[in-house]
Amino acid sequence: MSIQQNLLKIKSSLPSQVTLVAVSKTKPVADLMEAYDSGQRIFGENKIQEMTEKWEVMPKDIEWHMIGHVQTNKVKYMAEYVSLIHGVDSLKLLEEINKQAKKHNRVINCLLQIYIAEEETKFGLDEKELEELLNSITFKSLENINVIGLMGMATFTDNQVQIKKEFQHLKSIFDKFTIHNSQFTTLSMGMSGDYQLAIDCGSTMVRIGSSIFGGRS
Ligand SMILES: *Cc1c(COP(=O)(O)O)cnc(C)c1O
Predict the structure, then answer these.
(1) Which domains can be identified in the chain, with CATH numbers?
(2) pLDDT of 30-75, one tens digit each?
(3) What is the rounded distance in angstroms from the CA atom of residue 62 to the CA atom of residue 96?
């Protein structure tokens, strides 16, 4: 199946309230343009340099989402154009995003990454750290960032019961914090292998790569 066919098939299966991020990491611009020509406008990348190279040569009505782990010293390279940063996991990083956004007279949307998996290698905050961050005086003083929700990644496993448990956990944290944070609108969870389950558990944004663009080497 072509990229266009994959994309249309996935899009037709998504409920209207769910946003599709086409994860194009490692893929050439020609592949992204095929998705663009099929109507896709939101792309997700996990390396700032690669994303910036693509941003420079591609149409300017694309929304670029950074879905990977962000190093503080690289925020400056995407501050001019990035639409949403999914993987924010510290106040220090938020402060840097705020500082760089200010230089460009922008407010940058961010998601806070929550640790839900049983894998040491994954990043994120736990519920207590999330609460501390949102209640901190520093956080409240940041005017050039807008935290619009949460993001999480389930454990890499075939065990659907476990994945479902992790997604439900994230959704319960999201609901709890939405009560006090009216700007919380977005719950980014679900990838090629588990997005249907994620949607059943309340996801509003799915990040799908290989089911659109094919496997990555
Ligand atoms: C690569 C990646 C995805 C997409 O993974 P697929 O399994 O190819 O759909 C989603 N989210 C993050 C954070 C990723 O790094």
Answers:
(1) 3-209 (3.20.20.10)
(2) 999 999 999 999 999 999 999 999 999 999 999 999 999 999 999 9
(3) 24
| Cβ of 23 below 6 Å from ligand 1 | yes
* pTM as predicted: 0.96
Q: What are phi and psi for residue 52, nearest 5 degrees? A: -65, -40
CA distance 177 to 159: 28
DSSP state of 210: H
Q: Please give the distance, rounded to the nearest whole angstrom, from the Cα atom of residue 64 to the centre of ligand 1.
A: 15
- What does the pLDDT look like over 73-84, one tens digit per residue? 999 999 999 999
Distance between CA atoms of 5 and 11, rounded to whole angstroms? Answer: 10
Cα–ligand 1 centroid distance for 23 (angstroms): 6
Residue 119 has a pLDDT of 77
Return the number of other C-beta atoms located less than 10 Å from residue 164's C-beta. Answer: 16
Cα(48)–Cα(71) distance, integer angstroms: 9
Q: Mapping DSSP to helix (H, G, I), strand (E, B) and coil, where does residue 13 land?
A: helix
